[in-house]
Amino acid sequence: MLSVQCRLPLLMLSLLLSIFPVVANNAPAVKAAITETDLTQISVQHLQLGMDKAQAGLLLEQHFSNVRKTEPGSVTAFKCVKQQCQAQRLAADGSVSVNVHFNQADKIYWIAAQTQTQLASSAEECMRLAGEQLAAIRLQYSPDNQQYFYGQNTLSLRLNKQGHPDPADNTLYGFRVQIKCDPLAKGLAQSEFELRDNAL
């Protein structure tokens, strides 16, 4: 039978063990956040948030109009209907498509672009070059940011509008770049660029 002197430390230990889980459960959880930046400084296919419809239309026409082809053998298309403009270019070295959405004041609030190009001769080299491209974008718009998001054969960079650190806000108030290297296509890269601010 344990003496009173032995039982007292054991009693104190059991009390401490019963207290610690309660303290841990009541501690505030550390919430993930995405680096914030000024989205108005970011450009996608020469377009920026807040740009008016007339200016955006001129820029798209310059780069995607059938009248002014940028290179021999390329096929381009461009049209604007109501609050949306679409543009596309198909060429031997790849393709580009752009969708631009305007708010009721005819200002850009959402830009989405997709590109496909032969970035390298292997999937491994493609991923390395994709990392370099994202690093250049990060240094341009958010030099202190070290966040990268990895998926299967993909590498992504995400930046959020100032005042919106929640990762869930990235699709509505943020900038997202994702580059996917097709493992079966020997270095073919598919890139997605999305810039959006639903507050505009």
Can you walk through the features of this model?
This protein is α+β, with helices and mostly antiparallel strands and 200 residues long. Strands 1, 2, 3, 4, 5, 6, 7, 8 and 9 form a 9-stranded mixed β-sheet that branches. Strand 3 and strand 4 form a beta hairpin. The longest helix is centred in the N-terminal third of the chain and has 23 residues. About 12% of the residues have low confidence.
Oligomer: single chain
Element string (H = helix, E = strand): HEHEEEEHEEEE
Would you identify the regions where 5 or more consecutive residues have pLDDT less than 50? 8-30
Based on CA atoms alone, the radius of gyration comes out at: 25 Å
The counted number of beta strands is 9
Largest sheet, strands/sense/barrel: 9 strands, mixed
Average pLDDT over all residues = 84
Globular, elongated, flat, extended or rod-shaped: what is the shape? flat
The percentage of residues in β strands lies in: 25-35%
Percentage of residues in helical conformation = 25-40%
